[in-house]
Amino acid sequence: MGIKEVDGVVIQDKHKASCHCGAVELRFDLPNGLEELRRCDCSLCRRRGAIAASVSLTGIQIIKGKERLKLYQFNTKTAKHYFCDTCGIYTHHQRRSNPNQYGFNVACLEGVNPLKLESIPTNDGVNHPADRQSG
């Protein structure tokens, strides 16, 4: 089950989000609240410092500014990271570890302060599971 309340702020079933400048607006379907909260220590996530939560590919709607979103890929070029081309804020990414999900920047959710979240686990993105060879 996800977190339905953050520091007194209820996570809405359909929660609006935006980049810093407002050029990009999104709506996330979050009927279970914030699910699979995490940080990552890969080279990109370490630098951006965002807390990400999960949503299915069908659980995101770009309300405004689709043309403002820029794609950034690196390493295997599997994950698709999206940023506002005006203010540079990371909004979401299609995951490498689970391409059927988006990770999204919790800090973009309206009315949510991610600094109030405690005990967020950090995934080992340096030694990504997709890089490990079996056998």
Automatic annotation (TrEMBL):
<dbReference type="InterPro" id="IPR011057">
    <property type="entry name" value="Mss4-like_sf"/>
</dbReference>
<feature type="domain" description="CENP-V/GFA">
    <location>
        <begin position="15"/>
        <end position="131"/>
    </location>
</feature>
<comment type="similarity">
    <text>Belongs to the Gfa family.</text>
</comment>
<keyword id="KW-0479">Metal-binding</keyword>
<keyword id="KW-0862">Zinc</keyword>
<dbReference type="Pfam" id="PF04828">
    <property type="entry name" value="GFA"/>
</dbReference>
<dbReference type="InterPro" id="IPR006913">
    <property type="entry name" value="CENP-V/GFA"/>
</dbReference>
<protein>
    <submittedName>
        <fullName>GFA family protein</fullName>
    </submittedName>
</protein>
<dbReference type="InterPro" id="IPR052355">
    <property type="entry name" value="CENP-V-like"/>
</dbReference>
